[in-house]
Design a protein that fits this description.
The chain has 392 residues and is α/β, with parallel strands linked by helices. The chain is built from nine helices and 18 strands. The model has no long low-confidence stretch (mean pLDDT 96). Bound molecules: nicotinamide-adenine-dinucleotide. Nicotinamide-adenine-dinucleotide binds next to α1. InterPro entries: Gfo/Idh/MocA-like_OxRdtase_N, GFO_IDH_MocA-like_dom, NAD(P)-bd_dom_sf.
Length: 392
């Protein structure tokens, strides 16, 4: 059993996603578990090189997590070009703010690195497709984070769809969101750039990338969309206590038509207070049964167990509607989805294991967000054309 080190340049690791999900819960967790066993019996061992703008923060991170020098070089740098020039770095990963992503990916592709990135791949479809083509031309492996596919709740939902539980699926209703504090009397729990369109913010660009692969991958391909966006809170207060104008959408109300006439509605909001069991929930109704899936849980009601409520507002409700639903058991150990996808990508790089979520998949997410913004602006329903790989 040989150990094969694989150098990973990680850009944006001082940020929320870069640190918590990608460095801590993925790459460092993979090292803690002893690496990744390949089909050939070797062990893949990721060696992160942290990249960012703040030397102090990078040094702290490296020290806190015991990352050591390799080949006489520090495991961090503020110079992306220098990290990419290190011959032992094979993969570039990007979790920077969205507008910084495309240029950094171009640099990584020019240096011949395989690239894995947070979503959205780019700020618009043209750029996303340009990156996909560049990556193909460079002959490297490429991938985009699609973490929601690995959520236990959605894995269970997928199991139900694939097992034919629903009969004919009629509709999907998704509720995503929570209240993001304005930053005045309580600190906001998301970075302020999310609320400025000029900095790559907005809930449509953020969340529609996810909804595209969730709908396509778990239910059925999306064919058209209608969207009403809103900036409900026009002014917020940033990390430094300074008020700023919120120029980006903080809520989006979408209606989507899927293959087979399935109607999906998804509300995405940073301006709603949670009266749900989880921060995202999808209800799928079919002729044979229904399901409600969240991040972790999934509950079902079969046709044979469907109660017969009678509408009578003159009397207080006595039915316990939730009691008529049944919990789907785990039947498996669910790992952190970010980590699972990292393991798949690294095995894709090292031994060509399958990895379906390439830059074209990422571009489909960006396409959906772009169409969503246009549908809202133009106040009309838009088709979602198929994206074909340039090589096909
Ligand atoms: N997959 C998911 O569920 C998910 C969730 C949230 C965010 N994201 C994506 O991850 C990326 C990062 O989001 P985040 O919430 O971690 O953001 P964040 O603000 O917490 O982190 C941003 C990172 O980018 C770096 N950066 C580089 N150039 C910058 C600049 N000019 N201004 C500010 N920061 C700069 C920062 O130093 C920091 O490391 C975004 O593209 C976002 O869409 C994905």
């Amino acid at each position: 059993m040989a150990r094969r080190s694989i150098g990973v340049v990680m850009n944006g690791v001082t940020g929320r996603m870069g640190y918590r999900q990608h460095l801590l819960r993925s790459i460092l967790a993979i090292r803690e578990q002893g690496g990744i066993r390949t089909a050939g019996g070797d062990v893949l061992w990721p060696e992160p090189v942290l990249v960012g703008r703040d030397e102090g923060k990078l040094r702290d991170l490296a020290e806190r997590h015991g990352l050591a020098e390799r080949h006489g070089l520090r495991p961090w740098t503020t110079d992306l070009a220098e990290a990419l020039a290190r011959p032992e770095t094979e993969v570039y990963f990007d979790a920077q703010v969205t507008p910084a992503r495309a240029a950094a990916i171009r640099a990584a592709l020019a240096a011949g690195k395989h690239v894995y990135t947070e979503k959205p791949l780019a700020e618009d479809l043209a750029d996303a497709l340009a990156l996909a083509r560049l990556a193909d031309e460079a002959g490297v492996k490429h991938g985009v984070v699609q973490d929601k596919l690995f959520l236990p709740g959605l894995l269970k939902l997928r199991r139900l769809v694939e097992g034919g539980f629903f009969g004919r699926i009629l509709s999907v209703r998704g509720e995503f969101g929570y209240w993001v504090f304005e930053g005045d009397w309580q600190e906001a729990q998301r970075p302020s750039w999310n609320y400025r369109a000029e900095d790559g913010g907005g809930i449509i660009l953020d969340m529609f990338c996810h909804w595209r692969y969730v709908l396509d991958g778990v239910v059925a391909p999306v064919r058209s969309l209608q969207v009403l966006g809103a900036t409900h809170i026009p002014e917020r207060v940033d990390e430094h206590g300074r008020p700023y104008k919120a120029t980006a959408d903080d809520a989006a109300y979408g209606i989507f038509e899927l293959d087979g006439g399935i109607v999906a509605q998804i509300n995405s909001s940073w301006t709603t207070r949670v009266f749900r069991d989880e921060l995202v929930e999808f209800q799928v109704d079919g002729t044979e049964g229904s399901a409600v899936a969240g991040l972790r849980r999934c509950r079902v009601q079969h046709r044979s167990m469907t109660p017969k409520p009678v509408w009578n507002p003159d009397l207080p409700a006595t039915d316990d509607f939730r009691a008529d639903w049944h919990e789907i058991s785990d039947n498996a150990e669910f790992e952190n989805g970010f980590k699972t996808q990292w393991e798949m990508f690294l095995r894709h790089v090292a031994e060509d294991a399958p990895f379906p979520w390439d830059f074209y998949a990422g571009a489909r997410g960006v396409q959906f967000a772009e169409l969503g913004l246009r549908a809202w602006r133009e106040g009309r329903r838009l088709d979602v054309p198929d994206l074909v790989r340039s090589k096909e």
